[in-house]
Amino acid sequence: MSNKAVANRYAVALFELGQEKGQVDQFESDLELVREVFNETPELLKVLRLPGLPLEQKQELLTRSFENNVHQTVFKTISRLLELGRFTIIPELAQEYKQLNDEIKGIAERMYIQPNLFPMMKNNKLLLSLLQK
CA 3, CA 92: separation in Å to the nearest integer? Predict the structure, then answer.
């Protein structure tokens, strides 16, 4: 199964838990925090990837980094991903979760297209008017 598919399954499950607990937005911001920490601290990922480092020590590092900074449900999720060797999907999980939350809120990401990059679209007045909004 692809990382994107796994990330989507976890995102859906976590989103449903967030809805049950009334914590959807909190979970989203917590996942974003975890994603940012992983992105801004590549050393953390390197340590978590070390095959010789026992899982208990990896869990302790994760606990010290996140347990008091994110909701317990989010922490348990990332902890379980570490146990399963799937913690590298966290950025995709965060993105999938955000998309689910945005869909529920009716928020669509805006896609920008520069008409000069697509010569065949230049004469499409409807497209140009939509792009200028």
Answer: 8
